[in-house]
Design goal:
It is a single chain. The two termini are 18 Å apart. The longest helix has 17 residues. Strand 4 and strand 5 form a beta hairpin. Strands 1, 4, 5, 7, 8, 9, 10 and 11 form an eight-stranded mixed sheet that branches. Strands 14-16-15-18-13-17 form a six-stranded antiparallel sheet, with helices on both faces. It is built from ten helices and 20 strands. The protein is α+β, with helices and mostly antiparallel strands. It is globular.
Length: 406
């Protein structure tokens, strides 16, 4: 690892030519949690072909009775894929990628290995989502994280120069992404370009003149990075005499993306509540946050319940952000009254789910991406599930893998 940047090249696995197909890459596991039909269709499309679907646990299944059997099957599939020659390995590699999103915009990224420790979290995690992921990682031979780390690279010195160099690089893959995910290409970055990248990352950290500058922060995959760190700390405590500095579980495979890419757009992550007394929740929230419908305030959100839709303005906020005021109330209310909460991308999905009995949807405002770094510097981690970068189909798809077995 380059200690000045926290990132370095990695031994990266990709499916070989015989197994590289349009069904290999699947969407991040924390997407479509309110739409099990999406994952059922993905399973149908994959069928018996080699696919990263067999190496991940979609979170829609986290509360299923057979979750432990699913985890065991995932870990067994990892071993089988390794032993049967599904992969080709690229030593000391970085991969430059170009993702054509469903909106036609190109998002450039760089796949590398990063330490699990120094990257600043931008959002709090959902605690109950960490243990199942740790269970997978604890017995896993491979990792397939969907971590995306944002660079505050206004001058576009790290990733953008690779676009002009790609014609001289080896093209590793060029494939469509299933279920409306667009397409993606990946090129192997030569050593000379890797050196330039590390120098540019180092320079980013020196420009501010601060001792601990905020140069990169989580954009997506907060729970994946938290899981990697939790397992590393667990492993380190159990192996005090091991080489913890160079252990494979100290790192996670990540995609670096420039915050200032025109393809990146921040969108709100909405809330859906189920198995609740909707009238009581709305009455209690109105009292706690002093909600009004006829007096405009800076913080506002929309409530969906049955066929009703209403905008509320918060006159007694508990946070600098609307999502913070709302989430703080919901956490407290659910602890006292019970019920379930899920985090949904897409207002249309929330509207559909909110029509069900004993359900209520909350549509939150978008966050401007220019607010991210200043807000994290000032206030620390944002409330969990504050923002999403694009629609669910534009989230990171699992493509590259890395061996993490000791």
């Amino acid at each position: 690892m380059n200690k000045k940047t926290a990132f370095s090249a990695a031994d990266i696995l990709l499916p070989n030519k015989q197994n590289m197909s349009g069904v290999w890459a699947v969407c991040a596991c924390d997407q479509y949690t309110g739409e099990p039909a999406y994952w059922t269709e993905t399973d149908r499309i994959v069928d018996e072909k080699a696919s990263s679907l067999r190496l991940i646990l979609p979170e829609v299944y986290l509360e299923e009775a057979d979750v432990m059997e699913r985890i065991a099957k995932i870990q067994q599939s990892m071993k089988e894929y390794l032993s049967t020659g599904v992969f080709a390995e690229y030593k000391d590699a970085m991969i430059y990628i170009e993702r054509i999103q469903s909106d036609g915009k190109m998002r450039a990224g760089l796949i590398s290995k990063g330490s699990v420790s120094p990257v600043r979290a931008t959002e709090a995690t959902v605690p109950e989502r960490i243990p199942p992921r740790v269970r997978i990682r604890r017995g896993a031979a491979l990792e397939l994280p969907h971590i995306m780390i944002l660079l505050d690279d206004t001058k576009k010195t790290v990733i953008e120069p690779l676009e002009a160099e790609k014609d001289s690089m080896e093209l590793l893959y060029d494939t469509e992404l299933m279920q409306g995910g667009g397409s993606i290409k990946g090129w192997l970055v030569p050593q000379t370009a890797q050196n330039r990248i590390l120098e540019a990352l180092t320079a980013l950290g020196m420009e501010s003149g601060e001792e601990n500058p905020l140069v990169y922060a989580m954009g997506d995959g907060n729970h994946s990075l938290a899981t990697a760190k939790a397992y590393y700390e667990e492993w380190k405590a159990a192996n005090p005499d091991a080489d913890t500095e160079n252990a494979p579980m100290r790192y996670a495979l990540v995609e670096l993306v420039n915050l200032h890419s025109s393809a990146l757009e921040f969108e709100a992550i909405h809330r859906i509540l189920n198995q609740i007394d909707t009238e009581k929740l709305l009455a209690d929230m109105t009292a706690a946050l002093d909600l009004r419908t006829d007096a405009i305030a800076e913080q506002a959100f929309t409530v969906l319940c049955g066929d009703k839709k209403q905008v509320f303005y918060i006159h007694k906020p508990s946070s600098n952000l609307t999502v913070g005021s709302v989430q703080s109330f919901l956490d407290s209310w659910l602890r006292e009254n019970g019920g379930k909460i899920d985090y949904i991308h897409g207002a249309d999905v929330v509207e559909s789910l909110a029509a069900e009995a004993n359900s209520l949807g909350i549509l939150l405002p978008d966050m401007q991406k220019s607010e991210l770094f200043p807000t994290v510097i000032k206030d620390g981690a944002l409330p969990r599930k504050t923002f999403s970068m694009g629609e669910a189909c534009e989230k990171r798809y699992y493509m590259e893998c890395r061996v993490i077995a000791d």
